[in-house]
Design a protein that fits this description.
84% of the residues lie in helices and 0% in strands. By secondary structure, the chain is mainly alpha-helical. It folds into two domains: 184 residues, Up-down Bundle (Growth Hormone, Chain: A), CATH 1.20.1250; 183 residues, Growth Hormone, Chain: A (Up-down Bundle).
C-alpha cells in the first residue's frame, strides 16, 4: 500500500465519524422539539436538563482523554459511540423527566468523549501524514448536520414517528463504528505532546482566546439547541421549516469554515474575528426581529457564517501563542471553550422561562458583541 493510499485509508473512517456526528446532531436538534413536546416540557426544565448533561461531559472528556493516551483515540471513540447508540435507543422510549435527565447525562457525556476522540484521531492523522485535514473534517461535521436536519424534517412531515428516527440514528452509528474497526489506525504522537497543557492555563493570551472560543461555542450551542424549537414552537412553523432552520445554520457553518482561511488571509485574523462577532449579533437580531420565515432563516444563516470563523481563528492564534506546544494550546482552548456549551442551553432556557424564547436567544447577540470587544485587547497582544 502506497503512502497516499494508506493516508486515505486512515482518513476515510475519521471523515465518516465527523460526518456521522454531524448527522446525529442535526437529527437531535430537530427532534428535540418532538421529544420535549411528548414530555410536555417548557423551556426552563428542558434547558436545565441539557445543562446538567453538558456538565457531565467535562469530567468524561478529561477521563476519556487520559484513556485515549493509553489505548488510542479509536478505542475510546468506539466505546463512546456504543454509549451514544444506546442513549438514542433510550430517547425512543423515554417517558419521564427523571429518565430524560439520566439519558442526557449519558448522551452528552458520550458525545463529548466521541468528539474529543475523533479530533484526537484527526490530530494523529495530521501529524502522521503531514496533511492539514482538520478544516475538511470540521466542514464534514457541519455538512452532516445540514443533511441530518433536512432528512429529519422530511421524515416528520411525511408522518414518521420521531422515536423510529432515534432508532435509525443509533443503527447508523453502529454501522460507522463497525467500518472504522476494519481500518488501520493512524500513528499516535509521543505521549508528551498531549500532556503539557497545565502550565499554559496561566498564559494570558491563551486564556483570552479561550474566552473568545467559549463565547462562540455558547452561541453555537444556543442555536443548535433552540433554533428548531423557536421556529416550531414560538413561531408555529411546520416541522420541515423548523428543520430548514437547523439545516440553514449548519450549511452556513459549512460554507463559513471553507471560506474562513481566505477571508482571514485578506483581512487578518483579528479583524476577521472582530467582524464575525458583529456579524453574529446582527444576524440574530435580524432573525428575531420578524416572524417572516425567509428573514428568520436569513438571520440564522448569517449567524452560522459568522460563528464558523470564530473557533478556527481562536485555535490558529493559540498555535502562534505556543508554537512548540500547539497540541497543548489547543487543549486549553477546547477545555475552557467547551464551557460555552455548558452555559448556553440553560441560560437561554432560563431566560425563556421568565421572558420568552425570542428574548432568550438575544444571548447570541450579547456574545457576539463581547467577542468583538475582546478582540481589542487581542489585537494589542498579537500586534
Amino acid at each position: 500500500m502506497s503512502g497516499s493510499d494508506g493516508s486515505r485509508s486512515q482518513l476515510l473512517p475519521v471523515l465518516a465519524a465527523f460526518a456521522t456526528l454531524g448527522v446525529m446532531w442535526g437529527i437531535w436538534q430537530v427532534l428535540l422539539a418532538d421529544l420535549s413536546g411528548a414530555l410536555h416540557l417548557s423551556p426552563g426544565p428542558l434547558g436545565a436538563a441539557l445543562s446538567i448533561g453538558f456538565v457531565a461531559s467535562l469530567p468524561a472528556m478529561v477521563v476519556g482523554g487520559q484513556i485515549a493516551d493509553r489505548l488510542g483515540p479509536r478505542t475510546v471513540a468506539v466505546a463512546a459511540g456504543v454509549l451514544l447508540a444506546a442513549s438514542l435507543l433510550g430517547f425512543a422510549a423515554v417517558a419521564s423527566y427523571a429518565l430524560l435527565v439520566g439519558l442526557l447525562l449519558v448522551f452528552l457525556a458520550a458525545s463529548g468523549v466521541f468528539d474529543m476522540a475523533i479530533n484526537a484521531a484527526a490530530i494523529d492523522l495530521e501529524q502522521g501524514s503531514g496533511r492539514r485535514v482538520l478544516p475538511v473534517l470540521h466542514a464534514a461535521f457541519s455538512g452532516g448536520g445540514a443533511v441530518g436536519a433536512i432528512a429529519t424534517g422530511l421524515l416528520i412531515t411525511a408522518g414518521a414517528d420521531f422515536r423510529l428516527i432515534y432508532r435509525g440514528t443509533a443503527l447508523l452509528i453502529i454501522v460507522i463504528l463497525a467500518g472504522w474497526l476494519t481500518r488501520p489506525a493512524a500513528r499516535a504522537p509521543h505521549r508528551e505532546e498531549r500532556l503539557g497543557a497545565r502550565s499554559l492555563y496561566r498564559n494570558g493570551l491563551l486564556l483570552l482566546l479561550a474566552t473568545i472560543a467559549a463565547l462562540s461555542f455558547l452561541s453555537e450551542g444556543a442555536m443548535e439547541s433552540w433554533s428548531s424549537i423557536y421556529l416550531r414552537s414560538s413561531l408555529g412553523l411546520s416541522a420541515l421549516l423548523g428543520a430548514t432552520g437547523v439545516a440553514t445554520f449548519h450549511a452556513a457553518m459549512l460554507a463559513g469554515r471553507l471560506a474562513t482561511a481566505g477571508v482571514a488571509h485578506r483581512l487578518g485574523r483579528v479583524t476577521t474575528l472582530r467582524g464575525a462577532g458583529i456579524l453574529a449579533a446582527a444576524g440574530i437580531a435580524l432573525g428575531l426581529a420578524t416572524d417572516l420565515p425567509g428573514l428568520v432563516l436569513g438571520g440564522f444563516l448569517i449567524v452560522g457564517v459568522a460563528l464558523a470563523a470564530s473557533a478556527p481563528i481562536a485555535f490558529s492564534l493559540a498555535g502562534d501563542a505556543a508554537p512548540q506546544r500547539a497540541g497543548s494550546a489547543s487543549a486549553v482552548i477546547t477545555t475552557i471553550g467547551y464551557g460555552g456549551f455548558l452555559l448556553g442551553p440553560g441560560l437561554v432556557g432560563g431566560l425563556a422561562e421568565v421572558t420568552s424564547l425570542r428574548l432568550g436567544l438575544l444571548v447570541v447577540a450579547a456574545a457576539g458583541i463581547a467577542v468583538s470587544v475582546l478582540t481589542i485587547g487581542l489585537g494589542r497582544r498579537t500586534g
